[in-house]
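>> Question from a student workshop board

For tomorrow's exercise we were told to take the sequence and the ligand below, predict the bound structure, and bring the output to class. My setup keeps failing. Could a helper post the expected result so I can at least see what it should look like? The ligand is zinc ion.
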Amino acid sequence: MRRSLLALALLSASCTTQTREGMARAETAIAKALISDEQEDAIGRQIHAELEKGTPETPPVRYSTDPVVTTYINNLTAKLTPYADKDRKTAWHMHVIDDPKVVNAFATPGGHLYVYTGLLLAADTEAEVIGVMSHEMGHVVGRHSARQMVNALGLNAIASLALGENPTTLAKLAAAVVGQGTMLAHSRSDENEADQYAVKYAAAAGYDPGGIASFFEKLKGKQGHVPQALTWLSTHPAPADRITKVNQAIARQGLAGRGEIGAGRLEPIKARINATRPVSSR
Ligand code: ZN
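>> Workshop helper replied:
Here is what the output should look like for this input. Compare the format with yours to find the bug.
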């Protein structure tokens, strides 16, 4: 009950806030306070089921069954989670989606991380993959999905979900989130926060934290040529100031030029993905 009282207090505070941005911030705070870890877990599992089933707008995803590729990603995840868990203890679930044409990765509530094989093919170094993965972990640590859930269904539905008033809300929420093209774009401030987590976790795991910035630069360069494939870039617009902010954080923390890029380790994985890829998609 304490949660709903807090929500009420936040809601009344938000009513006096005039700006849309202020309202959005208040709604996010309410959603973060309302949604428990157990509910996040249930939502994450429901979204996972929806992704497998597909929706009228999105075909079912196919997971990679190549143990070399999945083990590789699980090992990278294991390098990052000890540091992410210090900020928010999470039961992480890693999923590799076998779709070499899609350059994308996203996180859902409950610590589910999804990486497409197309993103691995688009990256040049392990440090870039680590940069994207730690950025997505940052969205989970920062509870950024709360905002997406409010966007998908509205604050009333989220409140009724939190109070257990309407058991179909969870299914509706998962369908809405998946149907709207998988994980909606985050707010600018949530993206910046996730970038800061990316720098922090990548560096802590011994990697060059510039991987996230170099991956952004790379996608920007490819933008005009294969626009439809660069889903991650479309939900992660990379204005120059964002790359600058990442580089400033790296400089401020004395991390420039530090850490490894994992040279040579991504190539065999990419070769493996390419070898099992249908000829039509090469
Ligand atoms: Zn993001």
